[in-house]
């Protein structure tokens, strides 16, 4: 990508009402644009990150054996009435009527729709376990929408739904899905805690949240730093300073951001839609279900909350909009310019994610400051000085030290 052609405009400051660091940096770096309260558009840089996160999740869902679908966002009232959630779900649904006065809702989740689809397609125990997932826009009629992408009214979610013939089968799949989530978050540069939490209206059972510890988090987590025991404060039977019930270490308590959740649903939705299967004996039984969600925008914001410094964003390599940021120091020097352009073109041929700062009339200090704000993992500096040694200077974002690397090795400096 030529930086002169990139659709973006960075900003030095942001409105006083923007408090969360992730919101400030994503706003200043022009990754997102606010359309209304709790409603955001993703601009080219932001959409690149968004889609990189989606790619990671899609890979891990495929490794889990789940199949991808794409479900409708506009739901008839009758679907939600079958589970009694038309009036009772919290936050409440966004509701509307068509020209025929028929009522619909904008989907905030898809348990009902998935159960309806599975009915008639799952008929035998041999059809399970089954995992179906999607990336779809969700609409949440939130009372509060703060922190930029941390809490919004419209967002893209990866939601997975699994179907099982037995409790044992469910438990095995549920654990595999939990491990898949931990791998997703690790690939996104986050160390997540698996936290026991309430059912939030989806189930009477405890659920699992995945939290990252940060002062801006809305939740409070009681956890053990030694063995990983963790509970959301709302259900916690222990407090900071108590002994861990699993290993005896002293418990800690800190704020966290929920970046994913998994819910055992039992037979609640299969009963509502009469979703049954024939077991090995030919008897009819209700399918056991579970759901698993990750909000892409919130995950993106959490990544920034945990990966930044006073200069800007520090994107983890797998989610960064670009991997290399090529900057020629003396833009009017023929050899410097030719070397930088050759690196850029070679990067394109090799399929590397490269952005090349080809802009003229900008001070080099301004370019460096903007590069730090955007947070691309590796900055490749081409100058008269480095060319004297047939090299370029490579500096990893967040590091104070730079390395001289031979020109022919520059784009191999980091190979995924």
What does this structure look like?
The protein is of the alpha+beta class and 416 residues long. The chain has two domains: 21-309, Bira Bifunctional Protein, Domain 2 (BirA Bifunctional Protein, domain 2), CATH 3.30.930; 324-412, Anticodon-binding domain (Rossmann fold, 3-Layer(aba) Sandwich), CATH 3.40.50. 27% of the residues lie in helices and 29% in strands. The chain has helices at residues 21-28, 44-64, 77-81, 85-88, 111-118, 167-187, 268-272, 296-306, 334-349, 364-374, 384-387, and strands at 32-36, 39-42, 67-68, 74-76, 94-97, 103-106, 130-139, 154-164, 193-197, 207-213, 219-223, 230-232, 252-266, 276-278, 284-286, 288-295, 308-309, 312-313, 324-328, 354-356, 378-382, 391-396, 402-406. Strands 3, 7, 8, 9, 10, 11, 12, 13 and 16 form a nine-stranded mixed beta sheet that branches. The chain has a five-stranded mixed beta sheet with strand order 20-19-21-22-23, with helices on both faces. A hairpin with a 5-residue loop joins strand 5 (94-97) and strand 6 (103-106). Helix 1 crosses helix 8. 41% of the residues are buried. The model has no long low-confidence stretch (mean pLDDT 96).
């Amino acid at each position: 990508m030529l930086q002169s052609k990139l659709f973006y405009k960075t900003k030095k400051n942001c409105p006083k009402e923007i408090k969360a660091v992730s919101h400030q940096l994503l706003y200043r770096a022009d990754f997102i644009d606010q359309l209304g309260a709790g409603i955001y558009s993703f601009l080219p840089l932001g959409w690149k990150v968004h889609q990189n996160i989606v790619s990671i999740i899609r890979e891990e869902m495929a490794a889990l054996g789940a199949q991808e679908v794409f479900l409708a966002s506009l739901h008839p009232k009758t679907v939600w009435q079958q589970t009694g959630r038309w009036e009772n779900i919290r936050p409440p649904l966004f509701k509307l009527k068509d020209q025929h006065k028929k009522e619909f809702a904008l989907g905030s989740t898809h348990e009902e729709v998935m159960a309806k689809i599975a009915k008639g397609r799952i008929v035998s125990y041999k059809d399970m376990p089954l995992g179906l997932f999607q990336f779809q826009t969700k609409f949440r009629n939130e009372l509060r929408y703060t922190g930029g992408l941390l809490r919004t009214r419209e967002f893209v979610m990866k939601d997975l739904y699994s179907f099982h013939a037995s409790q044992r089968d469910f438990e095995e799949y549920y654990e595999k899905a939990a491990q898949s989530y931990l791998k997703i978050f690790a690939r996104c540069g986050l160390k997540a805690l698996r936290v026991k939490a309430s059912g939030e209206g989806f189930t009477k059972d405890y659920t699992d949240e995945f939290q990252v510890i940060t002062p801006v988090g809305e939740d409070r987590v009681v956890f053990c730093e030694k063995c990983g025991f963790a509970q959301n404060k709302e259900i916690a039977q222990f407090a900071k300073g108590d002994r861990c019930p699993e290993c005896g270490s002293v418990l800690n308590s800190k704020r966290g951001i929920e970046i994913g959740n998994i819910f055992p649903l039992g037979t609640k939705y299969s009963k509502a839609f009469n979703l049954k299967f024939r077991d090995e004996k030919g008897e009819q039984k209700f399918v056991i279900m579970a759901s698993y969600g990750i909000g892409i925008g919130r995950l993106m914001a959490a990544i920034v909350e945990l990966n930044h410094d006073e200069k800007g964003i520090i994107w983890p390599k797998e989610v960064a909009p670009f991997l290399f940021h090529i900057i020629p120091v003396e833009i009017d020097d023929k050899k410097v310019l030719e070397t930088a352009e050759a690196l850029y073109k070679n990067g394109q041929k090799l399929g590397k994610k490269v952005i090349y700062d080809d802009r003229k009339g900008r001070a080099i200090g301004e370019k460096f400051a903007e590069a730090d704000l955007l947070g691309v993992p590796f900055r490749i500096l081409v100058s008269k000085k480095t060319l004297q040694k047939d090299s370029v200077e490579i500096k990893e974002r967040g590091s104070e030290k730079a390395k001289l690397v031979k020109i022919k090795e520059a784009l191999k400096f980091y190979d995924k």
